[in-house]
Amino acid sequence: MDLDAAYRVNPLVALRPEPFGALAYHTGDRKLSYLTCPELVRFVRALVMHASLRDALDAAELGGTRRARILADLEALADTGVIVADP
Asked: How far apart are CA 37 and CA 29, in angstroms?
């Protein structure tokens, strides 16, 4: 992922809160994705408030291991179209 790019939840994706995190439903391709922890859901929703992914990660004050896990999760969400680069 480009740490200097801004990202946001795809406008075609609806996030539904669940006890484990959230379900992401893509209305374009009708696929479901799982956000497996509430921290990830909060982070994804907050992406739009930051000028870059790097800024979002810094603002979240994540430790090294947690930061790496969030980045891996974000890459998977980008691959499935749940999050997209913000033009």
From this structure: 23
Each of the 87 residues of the chain gets a pLDDT tens digit; together they read 899 999 999 999 999 999 999 999 999 999 999 999 999 999 999 999 999 999 999 999 888 899 999 999 999 999 999 999 988
Check residue 44 and report its DSSP letter.
H
What is the pTM for the complete model shown?
0.90
The total number of residues written for the chain in this structure: 87
Tracing tokens 């893509």 back to the chain, one arrives at 26
Rg (CA), the chain: 12
